[in-house]
Amino acid sequence: xxxxxxxxxxxxxxxTGIASVAQSPFIGQWKLDSSxxxxxxxxxxxxxxxNKYIFNFGGGAETIVADGTDQPGLYGTLLSAxxxxxxxxxxxxxxxxxxxxxxxxxxxxxxNTLTDYYRExxxxxxxxxxxxxxxxxxxxxxxxxxxxxxxxxxxxxxxMEVKAFEGEGLSFVNPxxxxxxxxxxxxxxxxxEGANGQGASASAQRVDEHNVVITDKYKEKAYATEDxxxxxxxxTLTMTVHFTGRDKANVLVFDRQ
Length: 257
Fold this sequence. Notes:
Helix content is 5%, strand content 57%. The chain is mainly beta.
């Protein structure tokens, strides 16, 4: 699930500019168009016995006992999983004493479909609401499976603000998460500022006036690449996000406000 946080951060923080910030068509307010966007997700749950499971939400393996207690997870977080009923799990991630996200997993009667009512809690106390429907791929039983999403519903508005940054650079501000991503087109890594940004950085390369490629890193290790393109009329910004280890890309479409 952590990777979703990363998915939402990228959705609101990443874009590009042209040679002069004064001329940049990217500066302004942008809002995600959920009807034209797609964020396919995959999560793997493996049972290793004794109520112990290996979870992989896209960022790497995390092994915990599903007893509801907080246990060490990736990126300095705590992860817990609890069976509330035979067909219901509650999965929670925390950091620095704060609940970052909660997923309520509901298993279908035939065991082949899982619905995740996913809620992410921002620093400003707002809530990002996403509903995912997954289908079992391959074997497994119960909640243990390779789950691949077949439907994603974003119930919350997502916006970003793009500002100038030190000459030709740009800053991408995520109001909900209180995060700012600064980039320049010099190939260098620049650290993310604000909540949950520790250890994260990005570098950017301009392809042409309306297209760039941005590489995102955590502790100097690349985990995603974004192909960012602006429409000819500068009213639509499309980001195609490729996560390491994922076959399907996210397609995020923003409209100028």
